[in-house]
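$ fold --in a.seq
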Amino acid sequence: MGWVGHEYQWRVNWLNKGLNAVDFDSRKSDVDTIYTDPHSSVVMNLLARYQVQYLYVGLLEQMKYPKANLQRFSAFLHVVYSAHGVTIYQVPVS
């Protein structure tokens, strides 16, 4: 998702006072849930909500979520790339 400050700076018109960091906090929380929740239905619902087509699991994700079973995605997502510690999963079109 990128840094919250960076995302806020480039995705929000600074004159628009209706959108604030809470929106980004919610997205960050959802990303954390995608990588850590053991229930595929929860993960798939969030992926659909954000219209995610591919899910990336690399060194950063492995370091950020060391207790998560990141290999579990292969049970319900299609592996389209796997090499050098990186796995990219394709999310099925619903």
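$ fold --in b.seq
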Amino acid sequence: MEMVASRRLCGVTALGQGVAFALMAAAPAMAAPDPAATSTPVPAGVFRAALASPAALVPGAAHADAWWTFEPGKGRVYALGADGRTTAAFTAPGVPRVSALAVARGDGGGGTLVFGDLEGAKDTVTLYRAAEPANLAGGKLAVKAYKVRFPDGVHNGGVLAADPAEGRVYLITRGTNAAGVYALPAALGQQADNRLTRVRRLPFAVRGAAFTPDGRLVLRTPDAVRVLGGVRDRVTHVLRFTGSGAAFGVTADGRRALVADAGARPRLRAVALPGASRQASRDPQEPAPAPVPLADRQPQPIDLPERSGLPGGLLGTGALAGLVLLGVLGGVSYLHGRRHGG
């Protein structure tokens, strides 16, 4: 009897050791990701804007040396030169006010201005599209209006950002402690039900957004600039800064973010951004996806698949397999003890 009990105990012990070993192996795969690198760079002055209160700063597509911007509450957009002076002012007939602006790049070198008034709590917002002017001489924009609807109810305000690597335009809502990221349809119709697609939730407030040429998403929060590897990726870098003005943008080469001081005619300061992430991981033999002009797009579903598979990736899957195998071995040992002991 003592020998039988001893062998049974050995079988149970082997099973317990197998479980413990498998859980130890799986632990690193399930651990939280490393925290984002945090730094406090010293911003360098770039220029002082001629406008009293510029908001978004978006590099031009057709004009590499121009910045597109607007003044909140007014229905016009401006082109600023590299020195901050106003190069041209364009009115937008039928647009009462502008609070968000992005430039979608086309494969022919031209761009499309996408803007609208996103302020206030709404379930539907009106966006406007106009071709980027070929000549910066001022005048009127040929504007088309589109109604876009949130898929999940009312949201408050937001910013626009266009990914030049994919040609997709995103709307990011404004909240006190969080933000929602939504993708515009691949094609907008003036009489169609243009429904936004929810991409993700961000656990922090967003006050400005811009993409780099390689697809990194740079977000301005109330106290920092946060860099994400992509629109669905985690934060990789947090850059602390003291600028409190409304204007924010990223240079056309993706190397610097511009943040504004407070006050009228604010000074714009440059903050160096960390190196590319998506570009480094892309196969050098694989050509970058060509952006498609917003005006020429055909309706198509937005491919934003949810992550699938077993938790923990390859390591987690291997640990689970080890758990099953060791459990089987423990059970075999237990049965073997019973047969020889009984």
